[in-house]
Every structure is written in C-alpha cells, then in structure tokens.
Amino acid sequence: MNAILLLLTALLCVAMLVTAVTAIMVNSTPIAILAAGLISLLASVVFVLLAAPDVAMTEAAIGSGLTTFLFFFVLARVRAGSEDGGEL
Amino acid sequence: MIRRLFVVLLLAVLGGLFLALQLGYVPDAQLNQTAAYYAEHGAGELGAANLVTAIIVTYRGLDTLGEVTVLFLATTIIGLVLATGRATISSESRRTQVSELLTTGSRLLAPPIMLLGVYVFINGHLTPGGGFQGGAILASSALLLLLAEPLRDFSHSLIATVEALSGSIYVLLGLFGLVFAGGFLDNRFLPLGTFGELFSAGAIPLIYSLIGLKVGAEFSSVLVHLSATDTTEEQP
C-alpha cells in the first residue's frame, strides 16, 4: 500500500471516529441517524481502498442505505404515535 | 458515577485487546492452500469472472444456504412477534403527513433503484455485488414507497409467494447440481458459456438472482409488517 492510500485510509478512519462521537453526542435524533449512516458510507470507501468491493457494496447497501431509511421510517412512526397521545 | 467508570474501564480493556491484536499482526506472504486453489482454478472451473461470487455461490454454497436460512428464520420470527396480539391497522387510520416532495421524488426514484437492485444481482458473477446486496437495494426501494405512500396496502401474499418460490427453486437447483453435476449447488449442470458474458458461469446467475429475490422479499416483508402494525395500541 503506497503512502497516498495509507494517508487517505487514516484520514477516513479519523473521520469515522469523529462521526461516531457525533452520533452519540448530538441531541437531535435525525442528525444522529445521518451520522450513523455516514459511518457506514465512510467504511465502505475504506473497504474499496482495501480492495474488497463486494464487502463495500454490502456495507453501502445495508449499512448506509437500508438501516438509515429504516431508522427514519421508525422515527416518523414514533413521532406520529406521540402526537396521538402516547408517552414517546 | 460507578456506571460511567465501568464504561470507561470496558472501553480501555477493549482498546487494549485491539491494540495487542494490531501490534501482533503480520500480513501473510502468500495465500493459504484453499485460497490458492480458488485463485488458480476458480475462473477455469466455474467460469465466473467475479471470484468472490464463485466462492459464495458454488464452493461455499452450503454456507450461503445456511445464511439465507438464518435470514428467513429472523424475518419469520419478526413477522410472528409483530402479528400476534396487535391488530393490524386499516389504511384509513395511517394518517402520517407526507410531504409533496417525498411523494413526487419517490415516484421518480423508486423504479431506477429497483432496476439497480436487479442489475446488481443479475450481474453478480461479473461485477462486485450479488444477491444479498441487490436484495437490500430492492428492499430500500420498497421502503421508499412505504415512506411516500403510507396509505397504500402492500400485498403480503405477493411478497410471501416470491419468497417461498425463490427459496424452493434455489434448493431445487442445488439438487439439480447433485444429480447432473459434481455435487450439491454445483453450477455446471448448465453450459459455462463464454467467460465474462452475461449468460455464463452455468447456474450462478440463476442462483444469485433467486437469492436476490428472496432477500429482497424478506427485507420487504419485515418493513411491510412494521408499517402495518399499530404502535398506538401498545398501551394497556
């Protein structure tokens, strides 16, 4: 692995760590969901750099696509439920 | 305070473990025996341009069948948990506000996303990706439709039929391999064709498409179950 790739990978890993801390610390739920999806997106780029495109496809499709959608879907349901007088 | 201390301690222990792993890591100088066999003979034996797919669908096909079974069990149990004890709500009472932007955008985006999913699993033997990835993309387009039009009733029986049919044909193709070729899930009972073309690699594209349809149907059924279950009746 040459120096530029190594630098890029290290940069992506630092960005993933920052995003992960953001996802835990931030108060707004939609931003936390987006940050969690961003971690998967950055991870899939790392997988491409590590020459594993199949794993990268899985990570992008499931980690950053499907679960992010699903969390937003559930968030919408939870908010609709709390408007009806629920405890959430 | 004590709990916070425990969390920090746990993180420190985990970090130490990973650091020890990282410091002791020595990259292999060459492939091990199995991997070397796959790399040398995979393309010639099975005719698949994407070696990862050849390994997943054929060499380690039984493991993939196990994976699909685990996913099937998980979705069945989710369906069971969501279906019992709670009435499914009629479409009139699902009155979530949906913005015009989401409705129009999903009408534009859902068909291309669905096509991309189908492309990914049909070309699984040529390009990166395959049944699981394509199935997840299919399910995300179904989820987009659910988000945009909560009032639409998705056909449970259609999803269940697609899932059941693709699952049984997958096992049937595996048995075909046992009878007409070298073993269970062997892809060579169909002609291997020209290396690198769409209709090549024997039964691999067929099997991976079935896996894609099955995975897509399973994920979609979880989402449809989630959307059709009333959350407000949980309170006693």
What does this entry look like structurally?
The complex is a heterodimer of chains A (88) and B (236). Chain A is mainly alpha-helical and 88 residues long. Chain A has one domain (27-88). Chain A has helices at 3-25, 29-49, 53-83. Chain B is mostly helical. Chain B has one domain (2-234). Chain B contains 8 helices and no strands. Chain B has helices at 2-23, 33-46, 51-59, 61-83, 100-122, 131-148, 156-180, 204-228. In chain B, helix 5 runs antiparallel to helix 6 and helix 7 (156-180) runs antiparallel to helix 8. Chain B is globular and about 55 Å long. The model of chain B has no long low-confidence stretch (mean pLDDT 80).
Most strands sheet of chain A:
none
Overall shape of chain B: globular
Distance between the termini of chain B: 35 Å
Q: Please, what is the oligomeric state?
A: heterodimer
Instruction: Return the average pLDDT of chain B rounded to an integer.
Output: 80
Q: How many helical stretches of chain A?
A: 3
Radius of gyration of chain B: 23 Å
Distance between the termini of chain A: 50 Å
Number of domains of chain B: 1
Tell me the total number of β-strands of chain A: 0
If you average the pLDDT of chain A, what whole number results? 85
Features:
heterodimer, A: 88 residues, mainly alpha, 3 helices, 0% strand, B: 236 residues, 8 helices
Quick overview of this protein structure:
The complex is a heterodimer of chains A (88) and B (236). Chain A has 88 residues and is mainly alpha-helical.
